């Protein structure tokens, strides 16, 4: 099974930290944020990982190389000077991801979720990991109902940015910048998306304050 780490964003909310360093390389507990993902994916048996790049992408490729230092194989999907957003970035990387279902994780989150629990072959076109709603997103995104992701009324959870996708999810897409969310919502409306709830740690590392809080938390555990 292959995986993709989304790492092409500009990181506007992280400025000025991201003016000269791409957000995935910001240090957390002594290691770049993206390295935490690489290590977690490797622990789950994932050896082939695709990383998309745009803003300061050359810094990422220089820092990580071919992945040999981490015991994995890294491939890069270069989006040029303008990131293609979540959906467009995954669509462009499909030739590197192959014909089988693959894992995608947002590069700007941190979690203790175990990737090995994800289904290698989801029953629908996508399988999403949902988490408890953080204070900055109290309304949540989706509900879970008998293992299916739904959007009707009731208790909602937040989409973690972790999912397993079949390439067929992108069958009607065209090259260019577009978001993943509309594709997921259309599939959810068809009843074609399963999901699970992760009750452990998950942090959207979207601001300098959250980055600092995560660093303090992890420093206490090492």
Automatic annotation (TrEMBL):
InterPro entries: GlmU-like, MurU, NTP_transferase_dom, Nucleotide-diphossugar_trans. Keywords: Nucleotidyltransferase, Transferase. The keyword Nucleotidyltransferase applies. The keyword Cell membrane does not apply. Residues 3-117 form the Nucleotidyl transferase domain. One of its GO terms (molecular function) is nucleotidyltransferase activity. This is Mannose-1-phosphate guanylyltransferase. It comes from Alkalilimnicola ehrlichii. The lineage of its organism: Bacteria, Pseudomonadati, Pseudomonadota, Gammaproteobacteria, Chromatiales.
């Amino acid at each position: 099974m292959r995986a993709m780490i989304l790492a092409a964003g500009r990181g506007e909310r992280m400025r000025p930290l991201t003016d000269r360093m791409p957000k995935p390389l910001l240090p957390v507990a002594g290691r770049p944020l993206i390295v935490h993902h690489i290590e977690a994916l490797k622990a789950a048996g994932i050896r082939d990982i695709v990383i998309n790049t745009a803003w300061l992408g050359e810094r990422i490729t220089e820092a990580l190389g071919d992945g040999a230092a981490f015991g994995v194989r890294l491939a890069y999907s270069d989006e040029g000077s303008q990131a293609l957003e979540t959906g467009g970035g995954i669509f462009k990387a499909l030739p590197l991801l192959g014909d089988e279902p693959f894992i995608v994780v947002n590069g700007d989150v941190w979690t203790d979720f175990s990737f090995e629990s994800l289904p290698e072959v989801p029953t629908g076109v996508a399988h999403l990991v949902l988490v408890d709603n953080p204070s900055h997103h109290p309304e949540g995104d989706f509900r879970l109902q008998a293992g299916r992701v739904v959007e009707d009324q009731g208790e909602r959870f937040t989409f973690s940015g972790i999912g397993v996708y079949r390439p067929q999810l992108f069958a009607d897409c065209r090259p260019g910048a577009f978001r993943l969310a509309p594709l997921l919502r259309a599939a959810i409306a068809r009843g074609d998306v399963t999901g699970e709830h992760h009750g452990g740690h998950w942090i959207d590392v979207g601001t300098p304050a959250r980055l600092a809080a995560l660093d303090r938390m992890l420093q206490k555990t090492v």
